[in-house]
Design brief:
Layout (H helix, E strand, L loop, with lengths): L1 H15 L12 H19 L11 E2 L5 E2 L10 H9 L12 H16 L2 H8 L3 H8 L2 H6 L4 H113 L22 E4 L21 E4 L2 H8 L3 H13 L6 H10 L6 H4 L11 H23 L5 H10 L21 H5 L2 E4 L3 H119 L12 E2 L3 E2 L13 E6 L2 E3 L12 E6 L9 E2 L15 E6 L2 E3 L12 E6 L9 E5 L12 E11 L16 E6 L9 E2 L3 E8 L6 H15 L5 E2 L2 E2 L1 E8 L14 E7 L2 H9 L10 H11 L8 E8 L6 H11 L4 E7 L5 H10 L4 H4 E4 L2 H6 L1 H12 L3 E2 L1 H11 L1 E9 L5 E3 L4 H11 L6 E4 L4 E4 L7 E11 L10
Parallel strand pairs: 19-22, 19-24, 24-25, 25-26
Antiparallel strand pairs: 1-2, 3-4, 3-5, 6-9, 7-8, 8-10, 11-13, 12-14, 15-16, 16-17, 18-27, 20-21, 22-23, 28-32, 29-31, 30-31, 30-32
Length: 1045
């Protein structure tokens, strides 16, 4: 360190001084001065500079120790002390350049005047010749050949050497003071910087410890939340598990009932050796004793569910009794939704006898009075019962020998289907109880297909509940896993944050220790420098005092005495010593030096008063010294700022921060570091933000070509709402508008000419009834015949047929697949014939399989054609969950149209089927009020359905009328006949026709029109060239308006 280098230098200079020690052990001041004078004079005389080691003025005390003359400077007067102190000042010189030296010379003269001659001679160390001259001994100075004038010169030389030692000491002390003060200033700056760093470090430690405590509390709260959530999860899963097991049991019971009620084509093909027991499908539907309907089926205000079902067949009764209360309520709802085959008036009469209005749609829709299609079943059931009676009679006649066989045969009947004629009969009651019984129950006996479909619906509902419970259990696991992951993520984040904070705290504590050590070292260095400055400057003052008030004053006193006593004609007042100005430092070539060698600086001064022959000659006017012996300050260096972090909040004011690294630490009084982290506010806007809507879209194509369709337009959300912000609903007038379009009445003969791949999925379930299924087939076949496979030279429709409603469970409890009747075909006659060959399946409504089969049929559909699936059904599907999933999958790639054929729609079924239809459901959900109404007016419903389904339909009659009025007809689309004989720009086809009449009166053969151009041909078109915007027309006499369709 600099102060140690100064100490070493001082010691070196002290050791270099040669001290003549008197025999008594004391040092002779005169001898010390002489040694110093000799070394200083030699150096000054040789180089014009004074840097001799002997010029330090260190003294040796009586104990032989190097030290400073004690107490000498303190005994001086204030003026004398000020004059000596001024020699070391760095302030600018006074008005008189030599004021500092003049003040010292004045004091020297005063001291000399008051000094005793003997003391002066002793302190000056005058030569013996001079001493003898002063004592009047002529012999000694005559022998030496010295005159008084020579003695004066000797004393002036001694005075000059003392002056040079004084100059050297003053410059040396000034250099030391400046160098040490610079080092001290660097140390003080480092101390200030370290103090600031310690304060910042204390703030960081305090913040880190507070944040660590907060993180610990958060972690504890999260662990408590995790324990609470886990306990709630296990409790919920236990409850859901109990419900799941109950629903599975109900599903097993329903499977048994479903197997019992499955229809067979014939029960008599088993052979006479088979024991068969016939069973009845009849049951009693009971209401409350006041004759009011029970609760509504599926919250439907048109269907009343019975409060109790009493099955005639014991197997059904036992199986139904095994169901849970919830499943039994679902069974009553399923039977309440059942459509009966035949017997409508009897059922209605029975319900009226109970005081309730008939709900035909809940039990039947009247469509089944289309023919006695199930009469053969009565014969089969009669034969079945006869065989069963014979079996019992035969067993009874054989006594106990056949009882085991009889028991085996009876048990085998659990797997036999329930078959009975579809009829509704009044229950048999004991005499006298008819009125009482009629007020409570009604006996019904539906066909096996209807009953099987009802129980399939029940099975499907229970299957949905089982799937729902299984999904719920899975969802419970996922929800808990998600909550646990969220809590763990938060906990990990808190723990990670805590770890970072602890790392910051550890780093801050380590930095604090380092800063404290540095501060202590710097404080010690500062104290050492201060002490060294004080001691060294005190030493300088003592040495200067010794030179000035001892050597120089004594030399002046002796010289002046010689002038007064030995030289005549010269007075002391005539003696003029040389006076010089203050040192003026030259420029230092460097400002600092890390090696501490420094640079070389030249000090210069000028002569103020030139001495005469009796006074002291002028000392050296130049002095070479070292400068800038301090280390260069090292400023803090920081790296570039990082990018701002993501805002901590999306709204309501968050914070962004950025950091930069410290590349170089400040040292030696260098500039301290600026902030290494800064933050700024962000996202100061409110979290409540309304959504931003785009512009209105273009109007859509009209939903119908006739019969009052509508078109719509909407606004999309560009920026969603946030927090409590508002956003209009999709159907809000601010986002959705509609207009009526194509309000003209449909002719009724419309045909579909759209490029369209259509799959018609037809329901053939048991609830449809055989006669009803015939109506559905006829409707579908007639609809198919309204589709054209090509129109105006372009490919048009293709149709595939899928049949569902054949649902049953295999041994693995998998629902049977739907039937692909025909793949996509453009032979509409063949498609219609295959529709007529379909048979009634009498299964349950496996809509999911039908939809997926339709999706598969569209796999090879044309990429440019519109893909449409049309579902014909009379009610809700058996498996709602499966159907919903299948519909969602289909609607990703095709449009789904639902045709709901039911006289009295149930609200739940209507809502479900509307949700299945593609959006908007208003154009994709069609309702036909029952199969009876459909059969009564096929063509009307076919026409209505066509214009709803087909995106491009035309009426041949209307086209023919229009062509007749215009005189030309459309023959081709998307082509031209090449360059025309004449061409023009036309805005309408009529303009183009007028242009053709003008240029080729009664002689043009065709024209091609587009919104941009009209090409007229004077020869018939033979070779057509594809050109999508164009439509080719021919004169009406040359083409038939219906041939193109």
């Amino acid at each position: 360190p600099p102060h140690r280098r100064l100490i070493v230098g001082a010691v070196a200079r002290t050791l270099a001084a040669v001290c003549f020690v008197a025999p008594g052990g004391g040092a002779s001041a005169a001898a010390l001065r002489r040694r110093g004078a000799g070394a200083g004079a030699g150096a000054g005389a040789g180089s014009g500079s004074g840097s001799g080691a002997g010029a330090t003025g260190h003294l040796v005390n009586g104990a032989g120790q190097v030290g400073v003359v004690q107490g000498g400077f303190a005994t001086l007067s204030a003026a004398e002390q000020a004059a000596i102190t001024a020699l070391f000042s760095d302030d600018a010189p006074d008005a008189l350049p030599g004021s500092r030296g003049a003040a010292v010379q004045d004091i020297v003269r005063q001291k000399a005047a008051n000094m005793d001659l003997d003391t002066a001679v002793r302190q000056a160390g005058a030569p013996p010749e001079v001493v003898a001259m002063l004592k009047g001994s002529q012999t000694s100075h005559q022998k030496a050949g010295e005159s008084p004038e020579d003695a004066v010169k000797v004393m002036n030389r001694m005075l000059l050497r003392a002056q040079e030692r004084l100059d050297q000491k003053v410059v040396e002390c000034q250099q030391f003071k400046k160098k040490t003060f610079l080092s001290s200033d660097q140390v003080k700056k480092d101390l200030a910087r370290l103090g600031q760093q310690l304060a910042n470090n204390a703030r960081i430690m305090s913040t880190a410890m507070g944040s660590i405590d907060e993180a610990t509390r958060k972690a504890q709260a999260l662990m408590e939340e995790s324990s609470t959530q886990e306990l709630a999860y296990h409790q919920l899963k236990k409850l859901d598990g109990v419900q799941f097991e109950q629903r599975k049991q109900d599903l097993q019971d329903a499977e048994f009932i479903l197997d019992l009620t499955r229809c067979k084509d014939s029960l008599l093909d088993r052979g006479s050796g088979t024991s068969v027991r016939a069973s009845s499908t009849s049951f009693h539907a009971c209401f409350d004793k006041d004759g009011k309907p029970g609760q509504l089926v599926d919250d439907d205000d048109s269907i009343a569910a019975p409060q109790e079902i009493r099955f005639t067949d014991p197997r059904l009764a036992n199986a139904a009794a095994q169901l849970s209360p919830t499943a039994q309520a679902m069974m009553r709802n399923a039977l309440g939704r059942m459509d009966l085959a035949g017997g409508e008036s009897n059922a209605a009469s029975a319900l009226r006898a109970l005081g309730a209005e008939p709900h035909f749609d809940g039990l039947e829709d009247g469509d089944e009075q289309l023919g006695d299609s199930l009469a053969s079943e009565a014969d089969m059931v009669s034969a079945f019962r006869t065989r069963a009676r014979n079996l019992v009679a035969k067993s009874s006649s054989q006594g106990g020998i056949r009882r085991r066989t009889l028991l085996r045969d009876v048990l085998s009947l659990r797997q036999e289907p329930l078959m009975a004629p579809p009829a509704t009969v009044a229950p048999k009651v004991p005499a006298g109880d008819e009125n009482k019984q009629a007020q409570k129950c009604v006996a019904l006996e539906p066909g096996c297909g209807v009953l099987h479909d009802a129980f399939a619906s029940l099975w499907g509902d229970l299957k949905d509940l089982v799937d729902e419970s299984r999904a719920k259990l899975h969802q419970d696991d996922e929800d808990w896993a998600e909550r646990k992951a969220r809590i763990n993520s938060q906990l990990e984040s808190v723990v990670a944050q805590k770890g970072v904070l602890q790392t910051d705290l550890a780093e801050a504590m380590s930095a604090k220790s380092s800063f404290a050590d540095q501060q202590a070292a710097k404080a010690e260095e500062d104290a050492s420098l201060s002490k060294m400055i004080t001691e060294t400057m005190a030493e300088c003052k003592e040495v200067v005092r010794e030179i000035v008030f001892t050597e120089m004053a004594a030399a002046v006193r002796v010289r002046n005495e010689i002038v007064n006593s030995q030289i005549s004609g010269v007075e002391v007042g005539n003696v003029v010593d040389c006076k010089v100005g203050n040192w003026i430092p030259g420029e230092c070539p460097i400002q600092c030096d890390d090696t501490l060698k420094g640079g070389v600086q030249v000090l210069r001064r000028e002569i103020v008063v030139k001495g005469n022959e009796w006074g002291m000659a002028c000392p050296s006017l130049n002095y070479t010294s070292q400068c800038a012996q301090v280390k260069c300050p090292v400023d803090c260096k920081l790296g570039d700022w990082s990018a701002f972090s993501k805002c901590t909040k999306e709204c309501d004011g968050g914070v962004q921060s950025r950091t930069r690294q410290q590349i170089e630490k400040p040292r030696y009084g260098g500039q301290t570091c600026d902030a290494m982290q800064e933050s700024r506010p962000c996202n100061t806007g409110s979290c409540d933000r309304d959504c931003v809507l785009g512009d209105w879209s273009d109007w859509s194509v009209c939903s119908k070509v006739c019969g009052s369709g509508y078109r719509e337009r909407q606004k999309e959300v560009l920026t969603p709402s946030r927090a409590n912000g508002q956003c209009p609903a999709k159907d809000s007038p601010k986002r959705w508008e509609s207009q009526l379009c194509n309000e003209r009445v449909c002719i009724g003969d419309e045909v579909c000419i759209a490029e369209m791949d259509l799959v018609i999925a037809i329901d053939g379930s048991g609830s449809m009834t055989e006669a009803g299924f015939e109506v559905m087939k006829t409707y579908a076949a007639r609809l198919v015949q309204r589709f054209r496979t090509d129109a105006f030279g372009q490919k048009a429709g293709r149709i595939a047929i899928v049949q569902f409603g054949n649902g049953k469970l295999d041994k693995d409890k998998v629902v049977s697949d739907a039937i692909l009747v025909t793949k996509l075909s453009d032979d509409m006659t063949d498609v219609a014939q295959k529709i007529q060959t379909m048979s009634w399946q009498k299964g349950f409504t496996n809509l999911a399989q039908g939809v997926l089969k339709a999706k598969d049929a569209l796999f090879n559909g044309r990429s440019k054609a519109e893909h449409v699936v049309m579902v014909l059904t009379d009610g809700r599907p058996t498996f709602k969950a499966q159907a919903t999933q299948a519909v969602q999958l289909l609607r990703q790639s095709a449009r789904l149209v639902v045709v709901h054929v039911q006289a009295f729609r149930k609200k739940s079924a209507e809502a479900l089927l509307k949700s299945f239809a593609s959006m908007p459901w208003q154009t994709n959900y069609l309702h036909i009020p029952g199969k009876e109404a459909l059969r009564a007016d096929y063509e009307n419903f076919v026409g209505q359905s066509l214009v709803e389904i087909c995106p491009r339909a035309m009426s041949p009659t209307r086209i023919a009328e229009a062509d007749e009025m215009r005189g030309y007809t459309r023959v081709r689309e998307g082509v031209t006949c090449g360059p025309g004989k004449a061409s023009t720009v036309a805005s309408t086809a009529d303009d183009c026709k007028a242009f053709a009449d003008e240029h080729f009166p009664e002689n043009w053969k065709a024209f091609a029109f587009s919104p941009e151009k009209c090409e007229v041909y004077d020869t018939p078109c033979k070779d057509y060239e594809p050109n999508s915007p164009y439509i080719v027309y021919e004169p009406l006499a040359k083409a038939s308006s219906t041939s193109a369709l």
